[in-house]
Fold this protein.
Amino acid sequence: MYIVAIGWIYVVLMMALVETSVVAGIMTFFWYGVLPLTLLLWLIGIPRRRRSAVAADQVPGQPDGADSQAD
């Protein structure tokens, strides 16, 4: 998945470099590159983060603080 993201950033960078002004190039890079890729990678990572959280909850022998006794 990361190879697609790297390829897309490269394409958007080339698009930004041929813009007529620096401001247009920065906006192109941000709106067509950074913002969509951030959203896409975050959405794709949700199931993996969920599985990691469930796996961490199911690890036996890990202290969770609930059964500790305060003196």
